């Protein structure tokens, strides 16, 4: 009999599982706390669960775990973790310290199928989805070494192409009996899968980031194939309809690529496009990588774009590139995909 990995279960899933074993549902909360607040790796650590029931659990269930196979530290304090999964695939997570807070960027898939022209992860295609357990175990593993204040689903993969694992993972992260992250401290980023945006909003309460990256359908079609299915108008309508945690904004991510989407006309169009969406803009200067001909804009171009948005009262930050020296910056994560010879 294959054992149930209980790290794949949300609290309500665990309640159902436990009552299926003939035990009181409230035991689930105790076990959940052991897993995510006490980081238990073995049922025998769960001292407020009876010995008999622990024996039943040990026979039928397991507690999976990840430990980093490699950790690289950047000169700027960013740390990149490489996790080897049970089937030999690997993913990366990145811990980014900023003003005393640590943001952990986690992966939701091995590779990605979306084929954005500027993204290294995308060039390898999709190997497979991560399970809920593999997603939450990235957080467990990093938390063992460092405090984690924010979680962003901005590592490898398109989280909205793996909602059946991502929604439970968000619910475990934000559950008061689980990791206890405030819903304002967890952000899911998408390239713009419109129907799945609504589904995400129905399945959990979480911040949303949308990788806009262009201000015309013509340019967006060219760099993000997803735009051919869900063009700007539909994407922005879905942003407007998204049920955010209270007093939150959608994060509009905008990767600036030299001579492609970095003009003042782009800045003007961007202001217009997002004018009726409660939003803030993250400008991300393109991180260059081998195998992609795009270039990062000049500092002057970035400053001009940034200032235009500010002058129009748009909340904007330009993300300084972090972890570039260890290939941990946005769009540079690839795990060991290249060495696996992984293809779509
Ligand atoms: N798949 C999701 C989340 C992971 S990508 C998404 O696309 O939103 C996280 C962010 O990195 C996205 O905003 C994406 O546009 C950006 N990105 C990808 N490649 C990049 C690169 N080479 N330089 C800068 N940002 C990049
Ligand atoms: Fe996938 Fe996001 Fe990279 Fe596009 S930018 S290929 S959606 S990981």
TrEMBL record:
Cofactor needs: [4Fe-4S] cluster
Question: EC no.?
Answer: 2.1.1.192
Q: Which residues bind [4Fe-4S] cluster?
A: 112, 116, 119
HAMAP family xrefs: RNA_methyltr_RlmN (MF_01849)
Family classification: Belongs to the radical SAM superfamily. RlmN family.
Q: Which PANTHER family match?
A: 23S RRNA METHYLTRANSFERASE (PTHR30544), RADICAL SAM CORE DOMAIN-CONTAINING PROTEIN (PTHR30544:SF5)
| Record-given protein name | Probable dual-specificity RNA methyltransferase RlmN
Organism of origin: Geomonas paludis
Q: What is the lineage of its organism?
A: Bacteria, Pseudomonadati, Thermodesulfobacteriota, Desulfuromonadia, Geobacterales
Gene name per UniProt: rlmN
